[in-house]
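Subject: mismatched residue count in predicted assembly?

I count 549 residues in my input, but I want to confirm that the predicted structure covers every chain. Input:
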Amino acid sequence: MSAQVYSRDEIMTVTAARQLRNGALCFVGIGLPSAACNLARLTHAPDLVLIYESGTVGTRPVVLPLSIGDGELAETATCVVPLPEIFAHYLQGGRVDVGFLGAAQIDRFGNLNTTVIGDYAHPRVRLPGAGGAPEIATYAREVLIVMKQSPRSFVARLDFRTSCGYLEGSGARERSGCPGAGPRAVITDFGVLRPHPRTRELELAALYPGVSVDAARAATGWPLAVADGLEQLPAPAPAELAVLRDLHARTESAHATPVHIKLPAAT
Amino acid sequence: MPVLPLREAIASHVHDGQSIALEGFTHLIPFAAAHEIVRQGRRGLHLIRMTPDLIYDQLIGMGCAERLTFSWGGNPGVGSLHRLRDAVERQWPHPLALSEFTHAEMAVAYQAGASGLPCGLVGQHDTTDLSRVAAVGVKTIHCPFSGVALAAVPAIRPDLTVLHAQQIDAAGNVLIRGIVGAAKEAALAARRVLVTVEEQVDELSADTNALVLPSFVITAASIVPGGAHPSYAQGYYARDNAFYLAWDEISRDRATFTAWMERHVLGVRDHAALLRLLGVAA
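Triage response: the counts match. Full output below for your records.
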């Protein structure tokens, strides 16, 4: 078999998709998580139930949404519920199996910053803020984090803790009373980090083909430990790549379609 | 419940210094109403909205806002709201005070406002630095039955909530279809409610459990076809994702932003003229 050429984004998306089991109820974020969830639904997990925070439950979009609330999501949903219900009844009510999160900064215990770089009152960079992330991090039974790895984003110390991972590690999350179990995996453009079973510190657990431990360490702002039995992840299968590329092609063409609004003659 | 031209509705109901929630979660964002607020030069507004979106990027960049209450301030799927960032990071065009929450907190704050309660409740696990920021204003209380810690979020009661919706009937009842966000809660929490709608019909064809805001909660309405563009109105037109992508470039630079607003908002008579200028309507 000839080696398939694929991008870092593609192997990240495929690796994230493979983390999802069929039938799980998944709270989806926009961007790469949305691509991963829909790739899983179109390949090994046809009964994956997707919830977007805009209130669309059981949605099966044909093209990927640009925003969290594109019409595509409502049109293909089992039901659309008011936003307060999504957070109160579905998330806080404990119905969500998997939550997907990304961030500008992550620390060694999987805590996330999406609020500010610098001081809160006088930020160097004002980031979008919390959105639904703190509740997803707290209430989803487990969390998957998708982030590109660099010393600027994988930091020794967060500028601001917006959403929790394992807090200070070693049982801190359990003591906080958070109902969810916390981050199960961090999928990066180098491989996968997983929390150590006892200390909860993120360790390098798996690498993509052709990626070295040293490269992953150099892209991390803390001394990255390597898990026992470091795995080598498989390249994306041709079938996975075909489905993913199809999905992106459909999406790009849909997003470029001009919008036409018919105005009544009188206006 | 009067149906007024938008210019008149904004002139009568939007005043300097008001707290105002232009809601609609991604869907049905009342852009036409916001543009009319810019044209009429309102100042010192306290803007409230879960996701500021392009609509508040424009109001903030044009100097209409003094305070922002929000829970997620980005251009969805694209990146930053550059005018919001410029206001927070470099106080341009002037300083902007922030009241910041999570989505879940803001949802219960609107519900509390609509319910006549002083605060709403969500679970409290003391896991976020947000609870340590004074401007956030969430406080811990304990359940009198179980002793469990809860986060109390102060109720939101806007002076005015503005919504865009699909239809209004002859009696003034308003129908919202598709993604509804916290539109109902924001409307019922407000002292006054202004709606823009795609069209007026004799009778709404909706199930009785559909989201209908009865005429007695609506203060005034305006018929504004295309009034949510570049957001969308399910059943009428799609979200203009190409515009949301283009906004990243338009808004990045102060001069480019100002020129765009002068030409497309201040320089046109109404929303229909803007849609024609953009080539979205014939």
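The CA atoms of residues 60 and 76 of chain A lie 5 Å apart. Marking this ticket as 'not a bug'.
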